[in-house]
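Tokens in:
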């Protein structure tokens, strides 16, 4: 068993614990306390349900999600239409997400050396290009994921030493809020956890690394659920530390004081450590997002998913360039990150419905085909997200 094979679930968890998660969870805790924990719990459960489908699809078919979709549609017109839909949805979503990744990493680095967020975004975009072009990014990605894990542990310890008000937290936990003022934050929490491109990435990772069937499907399914659950706990602690520092206080959370929530533990070093963590989270996700888009788009267009191929490189390069372009447009940093997460939340129902279609129709699924309970759970996820989106935009 190769080392890479054992990491697919944790790569997915690391992909969604990016600067969007840190910023969105911090804003949720600072502005709404624990009143939005229900949205996080829903997001984690929904992610486990949908990623489990992606794992089973990749394992059974030995192909990515785009390839599986293309082979299951007999009508040429519908096949082309759905391929264009996948290309458009993942392309737009990942471009927005890439902007948030680069912006988040730039926020961190700019607090150490203030050359400006646009300048740092360009440098980070160039670094992501070099890493992906070389194909030797995996060791660096592992190091960055370790830095994100260290940052997560600091949030846990900070929360523990901050003397939390357990009564207030419990009261807010059992008083969920879904007001118009909170809808954008709710969609952002959903979008930063249930990331549409992770469905494509997970299926492709399983398909490419389990060609010989050396591990049972259950191994990857358990790993996926465990990794996503750990990612959800990390998000919860980020929300809790922001609640302790900002909720009910006169000072509002913004891009300049995000690190304040770590001050009870790290004191004067809080800003430096937070900056390094945001850089690690941002660059890790800035590599993963265009990589997933390349898998999705090349599969939909029936092009080789070769990392050194011209089509594969053209897709991820376009995503990075568009992401850098968004950061140069002058959009406020936290607004860019929140927009990226909300965009993911809006794109998710379309991708989830396509996944449900394949999990019921693909001839190679066998015993890994969706049962009625998985279909009900998947439709419930799509229904709630669709209702929230309707409330926001209608």
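Residues out:
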């Amino acid at each position: 068993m190769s080392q890479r094979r054992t990491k697919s679930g944790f790569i997915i968890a690391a992909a969604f614990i990016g600067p969007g998660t840190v910023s969105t969870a911090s804003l949720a805790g600072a502005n709404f306390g624990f009143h939005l924990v229900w949205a996080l719990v829903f997001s984690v459960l929904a992610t486990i349900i949908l990623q489990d489908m992606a794992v089973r699809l990749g394992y059974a078919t030995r192909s990515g999600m785009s390839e599986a979709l293309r082979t299951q549609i007999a009508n040429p017109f519908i096949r082309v239409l759905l391929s264009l839909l996948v290309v458009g949805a993942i392309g737009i979503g990942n471009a927005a997400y890439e902007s948030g990744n680069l912006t988040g990493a730039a926020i961190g680095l700019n607090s150490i050396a203030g050359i400006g967020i646009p300048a740092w975004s360009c440098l980070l975009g160039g670094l992501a290009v070099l890493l992906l072009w070389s194909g030797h990014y995996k060791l660096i990605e592992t190091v960055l994921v370790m830095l994100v894990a260290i940052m997560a542990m600091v949030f846990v310890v900070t929360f523990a030493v901050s003397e939390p008000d357990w009564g207030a937290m419990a009261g807010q936990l059992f008083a969920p809020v879904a007001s118009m003022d909170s809808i954008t934050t709710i969609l952002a929490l959903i979008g930063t956890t249930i990331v549409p491109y992770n469905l494509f990435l997970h299926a492709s990772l399983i398909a490419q690394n389990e060609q010989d069937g050396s591990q049972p499907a259950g191994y990857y399914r358990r790993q996926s659920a465990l990794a996503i659950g750990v990612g959800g706990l990390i998000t919860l602690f980020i929300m809790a530390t922001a609640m302790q520092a900002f909720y009910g206080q006169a000072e509002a959370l913004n891009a300049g004081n995000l690190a304040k929530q770590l001050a009870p533990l790290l004191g004067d070093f809080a800003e430096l450590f937070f900056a390094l963590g945001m850089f690690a989270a941002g660059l890790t996700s800035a590599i993963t997002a265009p990589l997933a888009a390349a898998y999705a788009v090349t599969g939909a267009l029936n092009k080789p998913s070769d990392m050194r191929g011209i089509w594969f490189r053209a897709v991820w390069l376009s995503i990075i360039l568009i992401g850098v372009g968004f950061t140069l447009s002058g959009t406020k940093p936290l607004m860019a990150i929140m927009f990226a997460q909300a965009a993911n939340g809006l794109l998710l129902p379309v991708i989830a419905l396509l996944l449900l279609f394949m999990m019921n129709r693909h001839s190679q699924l066998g015993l890994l085909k969706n049962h009625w309970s998985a279909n009900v759970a998947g439709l419930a996820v799509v229904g709630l997200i669709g209702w929230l989106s309707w409330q926001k935009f209608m």
